[in-house]
Design goal:
Keywords: Membrane, Transmembrane, Transmembrane helix. There is one protein chain. The protein is mainly alpha-helical. It has one domain. Helix content is about 60%, strand content about 0%. It is rod-shaped.
């Protein structure tokens, strides 16, 4: 076989059909980034709310509105549950750890300040 019969390696292959694209890989198990982000966001809202109450409670009666306090308890519960679920993450472990810390902090802060302050009043 002579070298003239071989295809030129620099020419585009116009007679070769394109290959089918493989299917994208499925989302791996343990990808709990959304749960971790929910835990962080709701935890930050709860912590910011209690910091706000602690700083302006003497000039405001905002904390006497029960629907706000119930909403904070619900957000703290969501953050706590999502934080616990973040422990099962196999991917993005730093984000999962931050979600867990935010969830536990929101839960403890809600119990210590929110719940016990309601009992003492």
């Amino acid at each position: 076989m002579a070298d003239e019969d071989l295809p030129d390696s620099l020419e585009p292959a116009t007679d070769v059909p394109p290959r089918d694209e493989p299917a994208p890989p499925p989302t791996p198990k343990g990808d709990l980034r959304a749960v971790s982000i929910i835990a962080i966001v709701t935890g930050a809202i709860v912590i910011a709310w209690y910091l706000f109450i602690a700083t302006v409670q003497t000039i405001s009666k905002v904390d006497e509105m029960p629907w706000i306090q119930i909403g904070m308890w619900v957000l703290a519960a969501v953050s706590f549950v999502c934080g616990i679920l973040s422990l099962n993450a196999r991917m993005a472990r730093e984000l999962a750890a931050a979600g867990f810390i935010a969830g536990v902090a929101a839960g403890l802060l809600s119990i210590s300040i929110g719940f016990f302050s309601e009992l003492l009043n």
